[in-house]
Amino acid sequence: MRALPGWARHYQRQWLAGDASASLIVALLLIPQGLAYAQLAGLPPLAGLYASLGPLLLYGIFGTSMTQSVGPMAITSAMTAAALSPLAPAGSAHYVALAATLTWLSALFLLGLGAARLGQLTRLLALPVVQAFSAATALLIALGQLGVLLGSPWRGDTLPQLLQQLPHSSQGLRALDVGYGLASFALLAAAQFGLPPLLRRWGLASIHADLAGKLAPIALLLLLAALALPWALPRLQLSASQSSAWVSPALDWASIQSLLLPALLISLAGFLQSITIAQTLAAERGQTISANRELLALGSCNLAAASLGGLPVSGGFSRTMVNTQAGAHTPLAGIFTAGLLGLALWALLPYFAFLPLALLGASIILATSRMLSWHTGWQAWRYDRRDGMAWLLTYLGVLWVGPMQGIALGVLVTMLLYLWRSQRPHVAIVGRLPGSEHFRNVDRFAVETHPEQLLVRIDENLYFANVATVLEQLENALQRQSSCRQLLLIFSAVNSVDYTAAQALQNWLPSLRQRGIELYLAELKGPVRDTLAHADLLAQLAAPPFISTHAAVCALHSPAQEEDFAI
């Protein structure tokens, strides 16, 4: 029993019906999605189904979310295509080998981060950057699939590429293809948003309404395709060279090196998407998610995907929400889904060829439509112009240069914003609230101050990039209060002081003493005090660091001086 996952050891019989019904609905959703996302990644359509089998099983063993559904996703599929399209023709044996290697590398990055217990450190991207990347990538995916939807040869990884091909693509449109594509989009949209609630209002049970609402439009579209569009069917056959490339890709070291950065970005993007969904649903149910366990689980899932289908996988919003709303209680629903998917591949594989390309394109467009959240950019801009600028630059970068370069730009923007913000930290001159032991900003409160003493609270860590700015602000404050003889720096908000900052403070001491000013420190945190103990700064101070600002004021003021406080 100890070898079983925690959810399996405490499984309750009443959960079985919900897990079974959810697995059926998710399997029906996963089949067209898997084919579509593999096509989006430039791989044979069946790769998306094979890449879903192992991850569904392994996540049930290693994952910590009870309702997460793992498989190919639109964003990671688009990033895969963007990374591989410059290296090989889409669908070729070399391309499939590159995709398998990319998935292997992504898995190794995830497993390495999980083994090092760096689950929280993987969140290198600020929320505006993640939101902008998702919105811009979703727009590129939707625009790129319009050609598939309307039967036009419209392809491109960036907005300029798509716009350049628009005049040529529009000339080859045929009324029958356009009509079928638009009908596919309309019926699938109805199946997703309008038909199930309508069926429930008509008295159909919720599970049956969801199932009938999703199956009826697809059945109608398949019938229409078989009668009118025999040329629009996808090629699902796999050559022997492609199949063998999944198992043992033979690539040179230069090709592997070119995949390292894309693999890292894909693994981070997939993990961020997966952990965000998992934590949101877990919070609603009062459950907990382990970021490190999730890294190991997703790494294992990608190893399985690389071995079977060569397509990166992660937790998906649409499938996870469908899985949850359909009644899933535990990862057993995902294991059942894998079983149903394997059964479908064994018994129904010849019939998958009747899924037309326009139907797959409509599925992708609808799946990505939820991520077209431009209002997040406006919210970021209203909250902080710097966050809004990060959103805008990332969004434009993805559209104009592609998902891979766009997310790399987002990482760079995040780092530059952090450095820019921390380079000019908030430094507050404080005074004592009358009749209390509390000290607050003189610009915000009516406080008591003393002309010979300057109390300054530093609200940022001190390091090489900002210590010169902090010293400059301190000098300006001393010039405004020329009568100061005691300068007290309050470190209550300082969590670290690097070597450069410690040396700068130490080198500043002689200049202060020449002007008759003594430097004191208060409210040092343990780690900061331990770090400064390795330097000579503490030994050169006129007094050891004070445990509190109130203790420092009491120690530095004589009773006569107390009468000189002014508000």
pLDDT below 50 for ≥5 consecutive residues: which ranges?
237-249, 559-567
* Tally of individual domains: 2
Distance between the termini: 70 Å
The total count of helices amounts to: 24
Could you say which structural class the secondary elements and strand pairing correspond to?
mainly alpha
The strand count comes to 7
What proportion of the residues form beta strands (DSSP E)?
Answer: 5-15%
CA radius of gyration = 30 Å
- Principal-axis shape equals elongated
Average pLDDT, all residues: 82
What's the gist of this structure?
The protein has helices at 6-9, 16-40, 46-62, 74-84, 93-115, 127-150, 159-171, 175-201, 206-228, 240-247, 253-285, 291-308, 317-325, 332-347, 357-369, 375-383, 385-401, 403-423, 467-480, 499-514, 526-532, 537-540, 549-556, 559-562, and strands at 70-71, 314-315, 427-432, 439-441, 453-458, 486-490, 518-522. It is built from 24 helices and seven strands.
Layout of secondary structure:
Layout: H1 6-9, H2 16-40, H3 46-62, E1 70-71, H4 74-84, H5 93-115, H6 127-150, H7 159-171, H8 175-201, H9 206-228, H10 240-247, H11 253-285, H12 291-308, E2 314-315, H13 317-325, H14 332-347, H15 357-369, H16 375-383, H17 385-401, H18 403-423, E3 427-432, E4 439-441, E5 453-458, H19 467-480, E6 486-490, H20 499-514, E7 518-522, H21 526-532, H22 537-540, H23 549-556, H24 559-562
Parallel strand pairs: 5-6, 6-7
Antiparallel strand pairs: 1-2, 3-4, 3-5
Helix pairs in contact: 2-3, 2-9, 2-13, 2-14, 2-15, 3-12, 3-14, 4-11, 5-10, 5-11, 5-12, 6-15, 6-17, 6-18, 8-9, 8-15, 16-17, 17-18
